[in-house]
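Thread amino acids onto this structure.
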């Protein structure tokens, strides 16, 4: 490990946690895919090999990004934002549907897919961080300062919400935090919150009034999940996914059943992604689950530490946004599996099987490491 770290710059703790989680993901993905084999066919080795390729590509992307100066990320922020809008619009009209959700763009000839929303949320965080620095002296003015910042949030979240409410909600929440840290006057901040919620209800109203427009094709799914979650005692069949996830956590006990010995993972849809935490606890137990939570908290702490050490506000905002994004994803996955949140689709960063999500997470961490590397070069030290 020490020899490997000599080639990796930035925060060593982040590198160690990332490498450990990616290595462990190979074991867990191999163990958690029986349900996928039943539905789509193939073998566990096939999905393991596919995931191994994604892990290699993601690590390569993280390494490449962490060697670049973060100033180039800032300079490309507007281009990344417009590219993400273009991808989301393309997905809106031509997206490949998987599990009745048109979130994916299919890459020609290679047969792979990626979620444009994964790229869009990172692009928005980068662009928003740049705008908060650029407009910092104009935040008391709606037209010159506030609207140019809020409009990109509305556009990205509005394009994502059609097929992925949870991702849009998380992204809106992170944007609000960045706006608050960017010292937007609190009255304007509250107005933005009220405006965002009102806009969502207005879209829902239009969808209810004019269903033929199909503005929110998955609205009925969201509504049913919320209602079923509230009445979970009376809807055993409707809440089978959530109840099986909770039962898996309960049956895992302190030390778990062991790798490959979990039983309920075969009845959990996307046990390798959206219900990862439940499958993890069933096979590895409560003690391992606590260790996993601690690793994510340490990762968040190191990211925040790097951001707060920076003298550049762009770096600070970017690190905070990335840190909260990663924590939000894993928190929602855990809260869904434990039955606290309604069923929704957020996987475990660095652990769950998935191409675009894993790639974007590693690129995000690569950006953080680029910032940490810049700090080390200024001080002539190595992050510890």
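Threaded sequence (384 positions):
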């Amino acid at each position: 490990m020490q020899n490997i770290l000599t080639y990796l710059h930035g925060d060593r703790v982040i590198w160690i946690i990332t490498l450990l989680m990616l290595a462990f993901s190979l074991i867990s993905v191999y163990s958690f895919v029986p349900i996928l084999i039943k539905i789509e066919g193939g073998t566990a080795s096939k999905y393991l090999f596919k995931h191994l390729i994604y892990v290699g590509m993601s690590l390569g992307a993280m390494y490449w990004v962490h060697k670049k100066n973060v100033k180039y990320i800032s300079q490309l922020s507007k281009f990344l934002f417009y590219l993400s809008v273009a991808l989301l619009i393309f997905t809106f009209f031509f997206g490949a549907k998987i599990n009745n959700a048109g979130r994916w763009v299919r890459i020609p000839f290679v047969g792979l897919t990626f979620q444009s929303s994964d790229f869009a949320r990172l692009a928005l965080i980068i662009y928003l961080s740049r705008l908060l620095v650029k407009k910092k002296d104009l935040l008391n003015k709606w037209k010159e300062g506030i609207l140019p910042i809020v409009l990109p949030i509305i556009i990205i979240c509005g394009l994502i919400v059609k097929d992925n409410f949870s991702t849009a909600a998380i992204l809106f929440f992170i944007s609000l935090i960045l706006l608050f840290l960017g010292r937007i006057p609190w009255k304007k901040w509250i107005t933005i919150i009220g405006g965002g919620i009102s806009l969502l209800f207005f879209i829902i109203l239009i969808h209810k009034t004019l269903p033929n427009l199909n503005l929110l094709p998955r609205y009925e799914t969201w509504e049913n999940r919320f209602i079923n979650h509230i009445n979970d005692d009376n809807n055993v069949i409707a809440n089978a996914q959530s109840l099986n996830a909770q039962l898996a956590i309960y049956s895992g006990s302190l030390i778990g059943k062991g790798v490959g010995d979990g039983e309920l993972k075969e009845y959990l849809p996307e046990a390798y992604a959206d219900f990862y935490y439940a499958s993890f606890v069933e096979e590895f137990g409560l003690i391992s689950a606590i260790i996993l939570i601690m690793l994510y908290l340490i990762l968040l702490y190191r990211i925040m530490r790097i951001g707060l050490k920076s003298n550049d506000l762009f770096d600070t905002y970017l690190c905070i946004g990335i840190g909260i994004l990663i924590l939000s994803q894993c928190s929602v996955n855990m809260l869904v599996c434990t039955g606290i949140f309604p069923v929704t689709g957020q996987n475990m960063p660095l652990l769950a099987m998935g191409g675009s999500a894993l790639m974007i997470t590693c690129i995000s961490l690569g950006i953080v490491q680029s910032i940490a590397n810049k700090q080390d070069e200024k001080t002539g030290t190595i992050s510890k």
